[in-house]
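Annotated sample (chain length 486).
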Amino acid sequence: MSASRRSGTTDELGPDEPEPERDGPGALDSPEHPSGTSGPGGPDGSDLLAALLDGMDAALCAFDAGGVVTHWNREAERILGWTAAEAVGRHGFAGWAVRSADAEEVERRLMSAMHARGRQVHEFALLTKDGGRVLVRTQSAAVRGPDGKPAGLYCAFSEVHTQIDLERSIALSEALFEEASWGVVLVDADLRPAVVNAHAARALGTGRTAALGRPLGELLSQGVEELESALTHVLAEGAPPAPAEIWVSVRAPEGDRRRCWRSGFVRLASPLAEEPVPLGVAWLFVDVTEAKHGEQEASLLRFRTNQLHRAARAAAECEDPAEAATVHLDFALAGFADHALVDRVAGGTAPEDGEPTTPLRLVRVAATPSDGPGPSLLTGRAGLPVRYGEGHPALQCIERTGAVRATVGTVPADQARAWAQTRQWPADTVHALCAVLRSRGRTLGVVTFLRCSGRSPFERSDAAYAEDVAVRIATALDLAGLLERE
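Output written by the structure step:
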């Protein structure tokens, strides 16, 4: 028989399971060794039985057919305070372990287990030695003799709150692994999934059983090192004080999916060992990818709005409108691009619809240093046109009167360098975004933002920001042209 003090449950011999031959009710000596020894050199049977009973984590007492207490272990003594010497030999619980008013009912329900099949479960209020009351849940079953007739019964009991705690724990774990709206994965000491709930299986793109025992690297293409480091830390040091947000890429047939999981970790230890023995880690996570994207976009929008505001205030202090244009360009570069170019249409403005078509030429009026960081510089005083080939993104931008994005894609470094140099951009350029400069209904030129390798391509939100900057630059250049003519 075994039991757990934490759970309060027992796995006793069932009432219909065959018992060893006995000399009488309550006797547990082996028929081969009636003296209680297990053979030459073996331990005494009574000592072994006493050690087994006292080592149990559940309270246990036994009665003979007449209702006299024959066994009483240490857990029963711990709960009620009565020692084995004080309990063994008493008839039932009347007068010492239950109130007199309840004694008849308690004895009737206990002794009924000798004539019933299976275990009987009851709840009683028992008395402690110091006069207190303890509500216990009992499991009792008959002990049958060699002739198959009831020779007594055993009764295992635990405090009700302990049993309720167990039932709550079981209900919680069942709910977590069946109905939880977040992922739950039990990871063993080798950092491999041992149990996976339905939500976690969907997040990992696999089945609940297919993920068991597999290395995390087979399920995730990125973020494995960070996740395994967190699990190792929890095994060694315990649970962290707050959840952690981990970015991972989940392997999927259609391609890797980039996700952000807010994760909590709990170290699992065996309740049966004297010293805590790590059994693994409970990893709980919820997908917060959309929320993180929203936070990032909101933060980026606030930053860019502040940059536009600061640029406007700084440009307002510039006496030269052309210098104000470079101020707007410098403020826009922060966190947005690595290089920037401003090209003005030669002759002032591009031809509009209905006007005679002339070859479109662009003159560089401002640029950031290509050999290192620094403020934008005014150039193009000689008025020489930039050698843009046909189909260049800057020319397309003016023709369409809208933003144009370009990227070299995934190519070797030498091809990327040739791609940038052909378009008259710095050699380390891999992504470009062109926005048209318009003021007073006329196209004045184009501003080009460039990104180097290691940065992501420009997106639609980037194009909207570039157009906002282009409006301010165009206004400054238009004013500069008016002042020049005056």
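Annotation: The CA atoms of residues 348 and 444 lie 6 Å apart.
Annotation: The radius of gyration is 41 Å.
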